[in-house]
Amino acid sequence: PRLAYRYLRRDQNLVLRLQRFESADMLDANAESAKLTSVLADDGQMMTLATYTIRNAGRQHIQIDIPEESQLWSCYVAGEPVRAAVEGRKILIPISMTTEDEPACQIQFSYISKFPALGRGRKLELAAPGIDVPVQNTSWEMYLPKGYAYDKFGGTATRNESMEVMFREFGLSEYCDTLISENVAKKKKAQ
């Protein structure tokens, strides 16, 4: 800033104290939203599709940590397949920069997790993938097998009581059809 002072008398003096502030660290990326959709089978196998909407101001990669006993199946950035670097549970996904004028970038990946087969009195602990940027809003839809009672939900997520619990037969082909129709609808909306 510019400062200007005018002396009206000769015997005046001016004392200034200058203080330089350190630059604040800014977020170089953040996830505006995360949507997880999981299908759990009786045998304990679970397929999850994770979609993150990312604003990126300075990152080359986003690091995802998938849950234990999980295997990455596919990875897309902005609708295009990408080759992610994988080391154990850690996945590095290349991501492009976004400006304030551009829409946020979408990262989508799927993975398979293995749990013990479902049974009477079995307690199941599910974990969402970890991500190295803050996430503003997360939702997780679960498609669970029929014939079991689901209760005693815990952890840091809260169940949306306003959503109706629906029971219907839902196999792999119906799940894939649902994902395809959702992706087609999103692409039409984006155009």
Lay out the secondary structure.
Layout: E1 29-40, E2 45-56, E3 61-65, E4 70-77, E5 80-81, E6 85-87, E7 90-94, E8 105-114, E9 130-131, E10 138-143, H1 172-190
Parallel strand pairs: 1-10
Antiparallel strand pairs: 1-2, 2-8, 3-7, 3-9, 4-5, 4-8, 6-7
Major sheet: order of its strands? 5-4-8-2-1-10
Which stretches are low in confidence, meaning pLDDT under 50 for 5 or more residues running?
Answer: none
Count of DSSP-assigned helices: 1
Describe the global form.
elongated
What's the total number of strands? 10
Share in helix: under 10%
Q: Report the sheet-strand fraction.
A: 25-35%
Task: Give the end-to-end Cα distance, rounded to a whole number of Å.
Answer: 45 Å
Largest sheet: 6 strands, mixed
User: What structural category do the secondary elements indicate?
Assistant: mainly beta
Order of helices and strands: EEEEEEEEEEH
Radius of gyration: 25 Å
- The mean pLDDT is 84
Can you describe what's shown?
- This protein has 191 residues and is mainly β.
- The chain is 10% helix and 34% strand.
- It has one helix spanning 172-190; strands at residues 29-40, 45-56, 61-65, 70-77, 80-81, 85-87, 90-94, 105-114, 130-131, 138-143.
- The strands form 2 sheets. A 6-stranded mixed β-sheet has the order 5-4-8-2-1-10, with no helix packed on it.
- The mean pLDDT is 84.
Summary of the model, kept short:
This protein is mainly beta.
